[in-house]
Amino acid sequence: MISHISVDRSLFEFTVTKDKFDIPELKEDVIVKASAYQTGEDYAFSGSIKTKLELECDRCCVKFDHDIDKEFEVIYTSEDNVDRDDHIMYLSPQEVEIDLKPYVQDTILLNIPFKKICSENCKGLCAGCGVNLNKGTCNCSKDKIDPRWESLKELKKSLESAEE
Ligand SMILES: [Zn+2]
Ligand SMILES: [Zn+2]
Fold it and tell me: How far apart are CA 129 and CA 150, in angstroms?
């Protein structure tokens, strides 16, 4: 298909404001740079998608920036008998304009990391007191009190006061 690329080639760049997408993590507008080719009835685009997301760290719950800078290649075709994949989109023959936005949105969503970690060295939150261990230390490890012993102590105390 690529070999049929015609000489009608154009380069373009556009910015889509972040509110046009259904992605709450978007922090900045999305810049799409692409070159377009027409090959018979098909249109091929290749270029890059750039933006910034704000994610929340799974370990320490602090927000951090995550850059997206993704190369892409997509073909819009009106043929129905082609193998569909992520890089082939259907274009109805009545369509007069190609809207890249759904493809751009999918590409961004696919590039949100599954594990959101602010840094490989993130120490996370203390399970005992909730202190962010990247920012400070706490006394939990030094002075460990098992909460089960705490409740036993309470029970003992109430039994003692009941005896009195
Ligand atoms: Zn973190
Ligand atoms: Zn602690």
Answer: 15
Q: How far is the CA of 51 from the centre of ligand 1 (A)?
A: 21
* 62 C-alpha to ligand 2 centroid (Å): 17
Taking the centre of ligand 2 as the mean of its atom positions, its distance from the CA of residue 61, in whole angstroms, is: 15
Amino acid, single-letter form, for residue 84: R
Report the pLDDT averaged over residues 130-150.
76
Centroid of chain to Cα 108: 7
Q: What is the separation, in whole angstroms, between the first and last Cα of the chain?
A: 91
Look at the chain and count its residues: 164
Tens-digit pLDDT profile for residues 46-87: 999 999 999 999 999 999 999 999 999 999 888 776 666 668
- pLDDT computed for residue 155 by the predictor: 66
Q: In whole angstroms, give the CA distance from residue 107 to residue 135.
A: 34
Quick check: helix, strand or coil at residue 101?
helix
Ligand with the closest atom to the CA of 120: 1
| pLDDT higher than threshold 50 for residue 26 | yes
Query: What pLDDT shows up at residue 6?
Result: 40
Give the H or E element holding residue 68.
strand 63-77
Cα 54 to ligand 1 centroid, rounded to whole Å: 13
